[in-house]
Each structure stands twice: as C-alpha cells, then as structure tokens.
Design brief:
- The protein is of the alpha/beta class and about 375 residues long.
- It folds into 2 domains: about 190 residues, Glycogen Phosphorylase B (Rossmann fold, 3-Layer(aba) Sandwich), CATH 3.40.50; about 180 residues, Rossmann fold, CATH 3.40.50.2000.
- The protein has 14 helices and 13 strands.
- The strands form 2 sheets. Strands 3-4-2-1-5-6-7 form a 7-stranded mixed β-sheet, sandwiched between helices. A 6-stranded parallel β-sheet has the order 10-9-8-11-12-13, sandwiched between helices.
- Helix 1 crosses helix 14, helix 7 packs parallel to helix 8 and helix 10 packs across helix 13.
- The radius of gyration is 22 Å and the shape is globular.
- The N and C termini lie close together (about 10 Å).
C-alpha cells in the first residue's frame, strides 16, 4: 500500500524547482521548503507558510545561516539537525516520508534522513564560479552514496556523477527541464501569435531572445548578427542585472542594448506569450560551464510555441535536438539561417514536429517520471 506520508522537497528556491514542485504536488502530497539565507540566520527560529499562485504552490520558508555548508560553520551549527526537526514536524512517520534534495549542500541531511532520498540535480554545481569545486564534488559523492535515486537533468551531469562522484548508474534517471502543460496547445501553432502589448508596435519579422541576459549569452555573436540582419527586429525578454566580467562581452551587451528592444524581466508564466509571438527564437548560449552541461529551459518553452529556433552549440543537450533547432557557430551562419527563414515567411515546416515533441516535455511529465521511479522504494518500506 502506498504511504500516506508527505514527500519533503528541499529546496524550492529557484523558479525551476517551484515549477517542478508544483507539478509533483499534483502527483503526491509534498511539503516544499525554501530557506532564506542571512548573516544572522542562526539566531532566528521563525517559519512561515506562503501560498504562491504562479505556479500554484504552498511554500514553507525558514531562516538559514549564510555559509551553512562550509567549515567550520557546518560543524559548529549542525544545521542539518534543525532542518530535519522541521521536516519531522510535518510528517507522522519520517521513515515513510521521501526526501528530495535539490543541491549537494544538503548531503548531511540526506545522510541522516530515515526515509528514501532522491537527489534531483539541475546544475553542474561544482563548475559554478565562486564555489569550492573540490568541496562540491565531495558533497556530490556523499549524497550519491546515500541516495535511493539520482535525477540529473542532463546526460553530461549523469556522466559526471558516475565518473567523478562514484554514483551507481542503476540509480540514475535523466530528467531534463520542461515547460508547463498549459503551454502545450491543443493543435500545432503554424503561425506566430499576436505580439504582447509592450512590443505590439514593432514591425515583423521579430527575432526573440529570452532568459537571464547575462554571462551565459554570447553577446559578441549577437552584436555582429544583429548588424548583419538589418531587416529583423530583435527583442530581448529577461533581466540584465547580472554583471558580465569579460570586458568585450560586457561592451557587446551594451551595444546590443542600443540596437534592440529590451522589455525587462517577466514572470515565468508570461514567457510563453512572447515565445509564441516571435517569428523566430534565438538561443545564443556562450559555451561555458555550468551552462554547457545543463538543460535548456528556454528550448522547451520555444518547443511548445512551435516557432523556428536558431541556437549556438553552447548547451550540449541542444546538439541532439536538430533539426527542431538550427545549430550555428558564427554570426554569418546565423545570418544565413535568418535569410533561409525569411524566404519561407518564417515557416520551416517543422511546426507540427515541434508540437509533437513537446507533448512529453512538461513539468507534469517530469514529476511523474521521478515519482514512478521512487515510489517502489516508498512502497517497499
């Protein structure tokens, strides 16, 4: 008989984890935890429940000490005991309550949790700037050792877990990023949707770029490509607050801001309006870690929108997605791809194939995959 104990999701701080958790909560009962990091977190004991409407999700927020996973703070504070106590307070039988950890920094919690443990990894965390790579690899080894199941969101992260974290391949199921079920239309979208209000005065055709408009984009390529495509209106959707340390790339972003339309950050739920309205989507990833080894959420948003896509090879996952996405390596190749689409009124004949491919790429489907894999271990207990 399936356990009636809630699953514990630690944590749902990112929008991608909120989307995944919201979908999982429609499959199994779950408690969704989101720590709030502060310099005085160790002195605080509050806990607040907050209901989010977009996506629909009940979140349990609590304070956490900055640097909680680093030594000597980790040994002095034993933060894992406090978090486990909070989680035990939300279930009657902890042995039957699965724990989903979304970062290697929760390895010490995974080691003492008595129920099944899943490691759901959405990043090649050890490659992040500012983190101690060897420390993260050590934590990955610890959490992979005790996890019942491991769910990286790309094949490259899975390979890293096997080769460098010593993870048993039998534990691993790759679960890429996704889009909302509501973003999948009832039939293929053969033409672009009307433009959102803030760009409705722009003449078509429109090339759209969505995401965090920071260091993981190749701004040098973009600035040259925009200059080579004077008949195209370029629209950028996303925040530009991230500092770009490479001076040439930073200056190129400034140049692009003068050449194109930037509409600022939008909520995750609004992105599909733009994706459907673009004549062509551009995914100008710069080839660098951890982006290269990750899973492109932007791709799945555009896949559901059915519009043509042009992408660099900056994410390994996308190399396998051709011909649903056209791969380019230079501004000149991007220009050629644009000219090809213009000659065909931005209909490349792959709209229906993209729609069909998007059917199994929803957060709901990803949540069911994880639950189906982990449920036998829950039932067996």
């Amino acid at each position: 008989m399936l356990s009636d104990q809630p699953w514990q999701i630690l944590d749902v701080g990112s929008i991608w984890m909120k989307e995944f958790a919201s979908a999982l909560c429609r499959v199994v009962p779950a408690v969704c935890w989101e720590p709030r990091i502060s310099t005085l977190g160790v002195l605080r004991r509050w806990q607040r429940s907050e209901y989010l409407s977009n996506p629909p999700l009940l979140v349990e927020r609590f304070p956490m000490q900055a640097g909680y996973a680093r030594q000597p703070i980790a040994s002095l504070l034993r933060y894992e005991n406090r978090i486990v106590a909070r989680m035990k307070g939300r279930c009657e039988r902890p042995d039957d309550s699965p724990l989903i950890c979304s970062t290697p920094f929760y390895a010490s919690i995974a080691e003492i949790w008595r129920g099944p443990v899943a490691y759901y990894s959405t990043d090649l965390t050890h490659a992040y700037d500012g983190l101690n790579s060897e420390q993260v690899k050590h934590l990955d080894r610890r959490i992979c050792r005790v996890a019942t199941a491991v769910f990286p969101n790309s094949r490259r992260i899975a390979d890293y877990f096997i080769e460098q974290a010593g993870c048993d391949p039998a534990k691993i199921t790759v679960i890429p990023n996704a889009t909302r079920q509501s973003n999948i239309s009832a039939a293929p979208l053969l033409l672009p949707a009307p433009l959102p209000d803030d760009i409705c005065v722009l003449p078509r055709p429109i090339a759209g770029v969505m995401g965090n408009l920071g260091e993981n984009m190749d701004w040098l390529l973009l600035s040259e490509a925009i200059a080579l495509t004077p008949g195209i209106q370029w629209v950028f959707v996303g925040p530009t607050a991230m500092r770009i340390r490479d001076r040439a790339q930073a200056e190129a972003r400034q140049a692009v801001q003068r050449m194109a339309t930037f509409v600022g950050a939008k909520s995750y739920g609004e992105l599909q309006q733009y994706a459907r309205a673009f004549d062509v989507a551009v995914l100008p990833y710069k080839k660098k870690e951890p982006t290269y080894s990750g899973s492109s959420t932007r791709f799945y948003e555009h896949l559901a929108a059915c519009r043509p896509m042009i992408s660099t090879r900056g994410v390994a996952e996308l190399v396998e997605k051709a011909p649903l996405v056209t791969l380019i390596d230079s501004p000149e190749e991007l220009q050629e791809a644009m000219q090809y689409l213009q000659q065909r009124q931005f209909r490349d004949g792959l709209e229906t194939k993209r729609w069909l491919a998007s059917q199994g790429t929803t957060w709901e489907e990803r949540a069911r995959t994880l639950a189906d894999f982990l449920l036998p271990s829950v039932v067996d207990r």
